[in-house]
Amino acid sequence: QVQLGESGGGLVQAGGSLNLSCAASGSIFSSLTMGWYRQAPGKQRELVAAIAISGSTNYADSVEGRFTISRDNAKNTVYLQMNSLKPEDTAVYYCNAKLGTMGRYGNYWGQGTQVTVSS
User: Fold this and answer.
1) Fewer CB within 10 Å, N- or C-terminus of the chain?
2) Which residues lie below 8 Å from residue 46, measured CB to CB, with a gap of 6+?
3) What percent of the chain has pLDDT over 90?
């Protein structure tokens, strides 16, 4: 079982920056594909960014060039640096961990952290 805890959300003005962190419990962090998802009111949860075991990354088109996902396996932590924030980035951001392809051996979620971008 993997437990995830997010931090770093808050209120920021448009154009500002925030850095989200997600700490994972256990000793298998380096074997996990990590991702950040978000869910805005009335919308479906969507993938924002993901980082594989190899370190390769992928981003939603809407955040490409503004957000950066990274991981520190020594600290069991994944980060999401968010720059040039827009009001449409307002959402609850969730950390996700997958063990195995498509999470076939485990799919874990954090409790979420609120990000609010004011115009």
Assistant:
1) N
2) 37, 38, 39, 60
3) 93
Q: What type of residue sits at position 65?
A: G
Distance (Å) of CA 118 to CA 5, 41, 98:
25, 15, 32
In a 3-state reduction of DSSP, which class is residue 8?
Answer: coil
Cα 110 to Cα 97: distance, rounded to the nearest angstrom: 9
SS3 label, residue 22: strand
CB 71, CB 34: distance < 8 Å: yes
Share of the chain above pLDDT 70, in %: 100
Task: Please name which of 90, 50, 89 lies closest in space to residue 69, comparing C-alpha atoms.
Answer: 50
- Rounded Cα distance between 39 and 56, Å, is 24
Q: Which pLDDT belongs to residue 105?
A: 92
